[in-house]
Amino acid sequence: MKILAVESSCDETAVAVVEDGRKILADEIFSQVALHEIYGGVVPEIAARSHLEVITLLADRALEKAGIGRKDIDAVACTYAPGLIGAVLVGVNFAKSAALALGVPLIPVHHIRGHIAANYLAFPELEPPFLCLAISGGNTMLVDVRGYTDMAVLGRTRDDAAGECFDKSARVLGLGYPGGKPIDDLSKRGDDRAYDLPRPWVNDGNPYDMSFSGLKTAVVNLAHHAQQTGQELDKPGLAASLCRAVSESLVGRTMAAAEQLGYDKVAVAGGVAANSRVRADFEAACRKAGKKLFVPPLRLCGDNGAMIGAQGYYEYLAGHTAGSDLNAYATMEL
Ligand code: KG4
Protein backbone atom coordinates (compact mmCIF):
# COMPACT_ATOMS: atom_id res chain seq x y z
CA MET A 1 0.00 0.00 0.00
CA LYS A 2 1.47 3.35 -1.07
CA ILE A 3 0.68 6.31 1.16
CA LEU A 4 1.27 9.94 0.24
CA ALA A 5 2.16 11.51 3.58
CA VAL A 6 2.13 15.16 4.55
CA GLU A 7 3.77 16.89 7.53
CA SER A 8 3.40 20.64 8.19
CA SER A 9 3.12 21.02 11.97
CA CYS A 10 5.97 23.48 12.45
CA ASP A 11 8.72 24.85 10.23
CA GLU A 12 9.31 21.95 7.85
CA THR A 13 7.05 21.25 4.90
CA ALA A 14 7.41 17.56 4.11
CA VAL A 15 5.76 15.17 1.68
CA ALA A 16 6.75 11.52 1.38
CA VAL A 17 5.63 8.32 -0.30
CA VAL A 18 5.85 5.29 1.99
CA GLU A 19 5.06 1.68 1.10
CA ASP A 20 3.44 -0.64 3.65
CA GLY A 21 4.56 1.56 6.53
CA ARG A 22 8.20 0.54 6.27
CA LYS A 23 9.71 1.49 2.93
CA ILE A 24 10.48 5.08 1.95
CA LEU A 25 9.95 5.63 -1.78
CA ALA A 26 10.39 9.41 -1.53
CA ASP A 27 10.88 11.85 1.34
CA GLU A 28 10.90 15.51 0.31
CA ILE A 29 11.54 18.18 2.94
CA PHE A 30 11.58 21.95 2.61
CA SER A 31 13.10 23.56 5.69
CA GLN A 32 11.95 27.07 6.59
CA VAL A 33 14.89 27.75 8.92
CA ALA A 34 16.21 30.57 6.73
CA LEU A 35 12.82 32.34 6.91
CA HIS A 36 12.63 32.31 10.71
CA GLU A 37 16.30 32.69 11.57
CA ILE A 38 16.36 36.46 11.96
CA TYR A 39 13.44 36.33 14.42
CA GLY A 40 15.22 33.77 16.62
CA GLY A 41 12.28 31.35 16.46
CA VAL A 42 9.36 30.18 14.35
CA VAL A 43 6.88 32.90 13.37
CA PRO A 44 3.57 31.02 13.00
CA GLU A 45 2.06 33.08 10.19
CA ILE A 46 5.25 32.98 8.13
CA ALA A 47 5.37 29.21 8.67
CA ALA A 48 1.79 28.73 7.46
CA ARG A 49 2.25 30.91 4.38
CA SER A 50 5.46 29.12 3.43
CA HIS A 51 3.76 25.70 3.72
CA LEU A 52 1.04 26.98 1.42
CA GLU A 53 3.55 28.06 -1.20
CA VAL A 54 5.59 24.88 -1.45
CA ILE A 55 3.35 21.97 -0.49
CA THR A 56 1.99 21.20 -3.97
CA LEU A 57 5.43 21.42 -5.54
CA LEU A 58 6.80 19.07 -2.89
CA ALA A 59 4.03 16.55 -3.51
CA ASP A 60 4.74 16.58 -7.26
CA ARG A 61 8.42 16.12 -6.56
CA ALA A 62 7.75 13.25 -4.12
CA LEU A 63 5.75 11.39 -6.78
CA GLU A 64 8.48 12.00 -9.32
CA LYS A 65 11.20 10.74 -6.94
CA ALA A 66 9.10 7.68 -6.07
CA GLY A 67 8.69 7.00 -9.77
CA ILE A 68 4.92 6.70 -9.52
CA GLY A 69 1.88 8.57 -10.77
CA ARG A 70 -1.10 9.99 -8.89
CA LYS A 71 -3.20 6.92 -9.70
CA ASP A 72 -0.71 4.73 -7.80
CA ILE A 73 -1.46 6.43 -4.47
CA ASP A 74 -3.64 4.23 -2.24
CA ALA A 75 -4.23 6.70 0.61
CA VAL A 76 -3.23 10.14 1.86
CA ALA A 77 -2.01 10.66 5.45
CA CYS A 78 -1.35 13.93 7.23
CA THR A 79 -0.36 15.32 10.61
CA TYR A 80 -3.58 16.73 12.07
CA ALA A 81 -2.28 17.49 15.61
CA PRO A 82 -0.46 18.81 17.56
CA GLY A 83 1.40 21.81 16.15
CA LEU A 84 1.15 25.46 15.18
CA ILE A 85 -2.48 25.59 14.16
CA GLY A 86 -2.08 27.71 11.02
CA ALA A 87 0.72 25.43 9.87
CA VAL A 88 -1.16 22.18 10.55
CA LEU A 89 -4.25 23.52 8.76
CA VAL A 90 -2.31 23.90 5.50
CA GLY A 91 -1.21 20.24 5.49
CA VAL A 92 -4.63 18.94 6.51
CA ASN A 93 -6.39 20.98 3.86
CA PHE A 94 -3.95 19.83 1.18
CA ALA A 95 -4.30 16.17 2.26
CA LYS A 96 -8.11 16.40 2.25
CA SER A 97 -8.14 17.85 -1.24
CA ALA A 98 -5.68 15.25 -2.51
CA ALA A 99 -7.65 12.36 -0.98
CA LEU A 100 -10.88 13.72 -2.44
CA ALA A 101 -9.41 14.26 -5.89
CA LEU A 102 -7.77 10.82 -5.97
CA GLY A 103 -10.77 9.07 -4.41
CA VAL A 104 -8.64 7.40 -1.72
CA PRO A 105 -8.88 7.21 2.12
CA LEU A 106 -7.68 10.10 4.28
CA ILE A 107 -5.65 9.12 7.36
CA PRO A 108 -5.11 11.56 10.25
CA VAL A 109 -1.85 11.04 12.15
CA HIS A 110 -0.78 12.41 15.55
CA HIS A 111 2.59 14.10 15.09
CA ILE A 112 4.25 12.37 18.06
CA ARG A 113 2.97 8.97 16.94
CA GLY A 114 4.71 9.82 13.67
CA HIS A 115 8.00 10.54 15.44
CA ILE A 116 7.77 7.19 17.22
CA ALA A 117 7.06 5.46 13.88
CA ALA A 118 10.28 6.87 12.38
CA ASN A 119 11.83 3.89 14.17
CA TYR A 120 9.79 1.45 12.02
CA LEU A 121 11.42 2.94 8.93
CA ALA A 122 14.90 2.59 10.37
CA PHE A 123 14.47 -0.81 12.00
CA PRO A 124 12.42 -3.33 10.00
CA GLU A 125 12.55 -5.78 12.91
CA LEU A 126 11.04 -3.38 15.46
CA GLU A 127 7.51 -4.18 16.56
CA PRO A 128 5.53 -3.10 19.62
CA PRO A 129 5.50 -3.46 22.54
CA PHE A 130 8.40 -1.18 23.49
CA LEU A 131 9.12 1.96 25.46
CA CYS A 132 9.74 5.19 23.55
CA LEU A 133 11.05 8.54 24.71
CA ALA A 134 9.75 11.19 22.30
CA ILE A 135 11.83 14.36 22.54
CA SER A 136 11.22 17.23 20.15
CA GLY A 137 11.01 20.99 20.02
CA GLY A 138 7.48 21.16 21.38
CA ASN A 139 6.98 17.86 23.21
CA THR A 140 8.81 15.61 25.64
CA MET A 141 7.07 12.42 26.70
CA LEU A 142 7.74 8.87 27.75
CA VAL A 143 5.39 6.53 25.91
CA ASP A 144 4.41 2.93 26.51
CA VAL A 145 3.94 1.72 22.92
CA ARG A 146 1.73 -1.32 23.59
CA GLY A 147 0.68 -1.65 19.98
CA TYR A 148 1.04 0.31 16.73
CA THR A 149 -1.98 2.42 17.65
CA ASP A 150 -2.30 1.61 21.35
CA MET A 151 -0.13 3.93 23.42
CA ALA A 152 -0.08 5.31 26.94
CA VAL A 153 1.87 8.34 28.14
CA LEU A 154 3.81 7.36 31.26
CA GLY A 155 5.29 10.79 31.92
CA ARG A 156 5.84 14.12 30.25
CA THR A 157 7.46 17.49 30.78
CA ARG A 158 5.50 19.72 33.10
CA ASP A 159 6.78 22.85 31.40
CA ASP A 160 9.23 23.25 28.50
CA ALA A 161 10.16 20.54 26.04
CA ALA A 162 13.81 19.43 25.97
CA GLY A 163 14.19 20.99 22.50
CA GLU A 164 12.85 24.30 23.76
CA CYS A 165 15.46 24.26 26.53
CA PHE A 166 18.18 23.84 23.88
CA ASP A 167 16.67 26.49 21.59
CA LYS A 168 16.26 29.17 24.28
CA SER A 169 19.70 28.46 25.74
CA ALA A 170 21.25 28.76 22.28
CA ARG A 171 19.50 32.08 21.77
CA VAL A 172 21.08 33.69 24.86
CA LEU A 173 24.45 32.24 23.87
CA GLY A 174 24.13 33.82 20.42
CA LEU A 175 24.17 30.47 18.65
CA GLY A 176 21.18 31.07 16.39
CA TYR A 177 18.02 29.08 15.75
CA PRO A 178 17.26 26.21 15.95
CA GLY A 179 19.75 25.86 18.75
CA GLY A 180 20.01 22.13 19.44
CA LYS A 181 22.56 21.32 16.78
CA PRO A 182 24.89 24.30 17.41
CA ILE A 183 24.88 23.47 21.15
CA ASP A 184 25.58 19.84 20.34
CA ASP A 185 28.49 20.84 18.04
CA LEU A 186 29.95 23.30 20.55
CA SER A 187 29.63 20.83 23.42
CA LYS A 188 32.16 18.52 21.77
CA ARG A 189 34.92 21.02 22.59
CA GLY A 190 33.77 21.60 26.18
CA ASP A 191 34.09 20.10 29.64
CA ASP A 192 30.71 18.73 30.73
CA ARG A 193 31.54 19.53 34.37
CA ALA A 194 32.39 23.19 33.70
CA TYR A 195 29.04 24.38 35.10
CA ASP A 196 26.96 22.90 37.87
CA LEU A 197 23.51 23.09 36.29
CA PRO A 198 20.37 21.98 38.15
CA ARG A 199 18.86 18.56 37.55
CA PRO A 200 15.15 19.20 37.69
CA TRP A 201 13.53 16.51 39.81
CA VAL A 202 9.77 16.48 39.96
CA ASN A 203 9.28 15.02 43.40
CA ASP A 204 5.52 14.95 43.73
CA GLY A 205 3.33 12.45 41.97
CA ASN A 206 4.56 10.84 38.79
CA PRO A 207 8.24 9.77 38.86
CA TYR A 208 8.34 9.83 35.05
CA ASP A 209 7.34 13.48 34.69
CA MET A 210 10.10 15.87 33.68
CA SER A 211 10.84 19.59 33.79
CA PHE A 212 13.22 21.72 31.75
CA SER A 213 12.28 25.33 32.46
CA GLY A 214 14.55 25.55 35.54
CA LEU A 215 17.51 24.34 33.52
CA LYS A 216 16.73 26.84 30.76
CA THR A 217 16.47 29.66 33.32
CA ALA A 218 19.79 28.65 34.87
CA VAL A 219 21.53 28.98 31.49
CA VAL A 220 19.78 32.30 30.76
CA ASN A 221 20.82 33.65 34.19
CA LEU A 222 24.44 32.56 33.70
CA ALA A 223 24.55 34.29 30.30
CA HIS A 224 22.97 37.52 31.63
CA HIS A 225 25.23 37.56 34.69
CA ALA A 226 28.32 37.18 32.51
CA GLN A 227 27.07 39.99 30.26
CA GLN A 228 26.41 42.34 33.18
CA THR A 229 29.69 41.67 34.97
CA GLY A 230 31.79 41.54 31.83
CA GLN A 231 32.98 38.02 32.60
CA GLU A 232 33.73 35.67 29.79
CA LEU A 233 31.51 32.66 29.54
CA ASP A 234 33.03 29.27 28.77
CA LYS A 235 30.50 28.58 26.02
CA PRO A 236 31.75 25.11 25.02
CA GLY A 237 31.79 24.16 28.71
CA LEU A 238 28.26 25.49 29.21
CA ALA A 239 27.02 23.69 26.09
CA ALA A 240 28.59 20.42 27.30
CA SER A 241 27.18 20.88 30.82
CA LEU A 242 23.73 21.56 29.37
CA CYS A 243 23.81 18.47 27.14
CA ARG A 244 24.85 16.40 30.13
CA ALA A 245 22.07 17.84 32.34
CA VAL A 246 19.37 17.26 29.69
CA SER A 247 20.62 13.78 28.95
CA GLU A 248 20.77 12.79 32.61
CA SER A 249 17.19 14.00 33.09
CA LEU A 250 16.01 11.85 30.22
CA VAL A 251 18.04 8.66 30.37
CA GLY A 252 17.55 7.76 34.05
CA ARG A 253 13.77 8.06 33.91
CA THR A 254 13.51 6.14 30.64
CA MET A 255 15.64 3.27 31.90
CA ALA A 256 13.70 3.12 35.18
CA ALA A 257 10.41 2.95 33.27
CA ALA A 258 11.75 0.22 30.95
CA GLU A 259 12.82 -1.77 33.99
CA GLN A 260 9.48 -1.31 35.72
CA LEU A 261 7.50 -2.36 32.65
CA GLY A 262 9.86 -5.24 31.92
CA TYR A 263 10.65 -3.99 28.41
CA ASP A 264 13.88 -5.02 26.74
CA LYS A 265 13.35 -2.63 23.80
CA VAL A 266 13.93 1.09 24.29
CA ALA A 267 13.37 3.59 21.47
CA VAL A 268 14.10 7.30 21.23
CA ALA A 269 12.47 9.65 18.71
CA GLY A 270 12.15 13.34 17.75
CA GLY A 271 14.58 16.14 16.91
CA VAL A 272 16.46 15.99 20.23
CA ALA A 273 17.19 12.30 19.59
CA ALA A 274 19.82 13.69 17.19
CA ASN A 275 21.83 14.95 20.18
CA SER A 276 25.13 13.10 20.36
CA ARG A 277 25.31 13.11 24.17
CA VAL A 278 21.77 11.77 24.48
CA ARG A 279 22.52 9.05 21.92
CA ALA A 280 25.80 8.07 23.59
CA ASP A 281 24.28 7.99 27.08
CA PHE A 282 21.35 5.84 25.90
CA GLU A 283 23.75 3.47 24.18
CA ALA A 284 25.78 3.08 27.35
CA ALA A 285 22.72 2.70 29.60
CA CYS A 286 21.07 0.11 27.33
CA ARG A 287 24.29 -1.85 26.98
CA LYS A 288 24.64 -1.92 30.77
CA ALA A 289 21.01 -2.94 31.31
CA GLY A 290 21.05 -5.54 28.52
CA LYS A 291 18.32 -3.75 26.55
CA LYS A 292 18.14 -3.16 22.82
CA LEU A 293 18.22 0.49 21.78
CA PHE A 294 16.46 1.94 18.72
CA VAL A 295 17.31 5.49 17.64
CA PRO A 296 16.58 6.63 14.09
CA PRO A 297 19.37 8.01 11.88
CA LEU A 298 19.67 11.80 12.11
CA ARG A 299 17.56 12.54 9.01
CA LEU A 300 14.58 10.68 10.52
CA CYS A 301 14.86 12.32 13.97
CA GLY A 302 13.62 15.76 12.89
CA ASP A 303 10.23 16.38 11.29
CA ASN A 304 9.70 14.50 8.03
CA GLY A 305 6.87 13.15 5.94
CA ALA A 306 8.04 9.53 5.90
CA MET A 307 7.31 9.07 9.61
CA ILE A 308 3.72 10.20 8.98
CA GLY A 309 3.44 7.66 6.17
CA ALA A 310 4.79 4.93 8.45
CA GLN A 311 2.33 5.61 11.27
CA GLY A 312 -0.42 6.34 8.73
CA TYR A 313 -0.17 2.76 7.46
CA TYR A 314 -0.80 1.32 10.93
CA GLU A 315 -3.60 3.83 11.62
CA TYR A 316 -5.20 2.68 8.36
CA LEU A 317 -4.91 -0.99 9.33
CA ALA A 318 -6.61 -0.11 12.63
CA GLY A 319 -9.46 1.52 10.71
CA HIS A 320 -8.56 5.05 11.73
CA THR A 321 -9.53 7.00 8.65
CA ALA A 322 -11.23 10.40 8.54
CA GLY A 323 -14.13 11.92 6.66
CA SER A 324 -14.14 15.19 4.78
CA ASP A 325 -14.93 16.99 8.05
CA LEU A 326 -11.42 16.31 9.46
CA ASN A 327 -10.10 19.30 11.39
CA ALA A 328 -6.64 20.37 12.63
CA TYR A 329 -5.79 20.76 16.31
CA ALA A 330 -3.02 22.66 18.11
CA THR A 331 -3.04 20.19 21.00
CA MET A 332 -4.20 16.61 21.27
CA GLU A 333 -3.62 13.70 23.63
CA LEU A 334 -1.52 10.91 22.17
O1 KG4 B 1 11.24 16.90 16.03
P1 KG4 B 1 11.62 18.26 15.60
O2 KG4 B 1 12.30 18.44 14.27
O3 KG4 B 1 10.39 19.22 15.58
C1 KG4 B 1 9.34 19.11 16.47
O4 KG4 B 1 8.47 18.23 16.25
O5 KG4 B 1 9.34 19.89 17.44
O6 KG4 B 1 12.56 18.84 16.76
C2 KG4 B 1 13.16 20.07 16.69
C3 KG4 B 1 13.99 20.25 17.93
C4 KG4 B 1 14.54 21.66 18.07
O7 KG4 B 1 14.31 22.11 19.39
C5 KG4 B 1 16.03 21.47 17.80
O8 KG4 B 1 16.84 22.43 18.45
C6 KG4 B 1 16.24 20.08 18.37
O9 KG4 B 1 15.11 19.36 17.94
N1 KG4 B 1 17.47 19.45 17.87
C7 KG4 B 1 18.50 19.09 18.68
C8 KG4 B 1 19.52 18.59 17.85
N2 KG4 B 1 19.07 18.65 16.55
C9 KG4 B 1 17.82 19.18 16.60
N3 KG4 B 1 18.63 19.18 20.01
C10 KG4 B 1 19.79 18.75 20.54
N4 KG4 B 1 20.82 18.27 19.81
C11 KG4 B 1 20.73 18.16 18.46
N5 KG4 B 1 21.74 17.67 17.74
List the helices and strands and how they pair.
Blueprint: E1 2-7, E2 12-19, E3 23-31, H1 33-36, H2 44-66, E4 75-81, H3 85-102, E5 106-110, H4 111-122, E6 130-135, E7 140-147, E8 150-156, H5 162-172, H6 180-187, H7 213-229, H8 235-261, E9 265-269, H9 276-289, E10 292-294, H10 298-301, H11 306-317
Parallel strand pairs: 1-4, 4-5, 6-9, 9-10
Antiparallel strand pairs: 1-2, 2-3, 6-7, 7-8
Helix pairs in contact: 2-3, 4-11, 5-7, 6-8, 8-9
Explain the overall architecture:
The protein has 334 residues and is an alpha/beta fold. It has 2 domains: 2-115 and 301-317, 2-Layer Sandwich (Nucleotidyltransferase, domain 5), CATH 3.30.420; 128-298, Nucleotidyltransferase, domain 5 (2-Layer Sandwich), CATH 3.30.420. The chain has helices at 33-36, 44-66, 85-102, 111-122, 162-172, 180-187, 213-229, 235-261, 276-289, 298-301, 306-317; strands at 2-7, 12-19, 23-31, 75-81, 106-110, 130-135, 140-147, 150-156, 265-269, 292-294. The strands form 2 sheets. It has a 5-stranded mixed sheet, with helices on both faces. Helix 2 runs parallel beside helix 3 (85-102) and helix 5 runs parallel beside helix 7 (213-229). The relative contact order is 0.19. The mean pLDDT is 97. The chain binds 5'-O-[(R)-(carboxyoxy)(hydroxy)phosphoryl]adenosine. 5'-O-[(R)-(carboxyoxy)(hydroxy)phosphoryl]adenosine is lined by residues 10, 136-138, 163, 166-167, 178-181, 184, 270-272, 274-275, 302-303. 5'-O-[(R)-(carboxyoxy)(hydroxy)phosphoryl]adenosine binds next to helix 5 and helix 6.
> What is the H/E string?
EEEHHEHEHEEEHHHHEHEHH
Main beta-sheet annotation: 5 strands, mixed
List the total number of helices. 11
Give the number of domains: 2
Helix content: 40-55%
Share of β-strand residues: 15-25%
Oligomeric category: single chain
CATH homolog superfamily of the largest domain: ATPase, nucleotide binding domain
Mean pLDDT: 97
Q: Given the helix and strand composition, which structural class is it? A: alpha/beta
Attached small molecules: 5'-O-[(R)-(carboxyoxy)(hydroxy)phosphoryl]adenosine
Number of strands: 10
Uncertain segments = none
Q: What's the CATH C level of the largest domain?
A: Alpha Beta
What is the 3D form? globular
**Rg estimate, integer Å:** 20 Å
Ends: how far apart? 25 Å
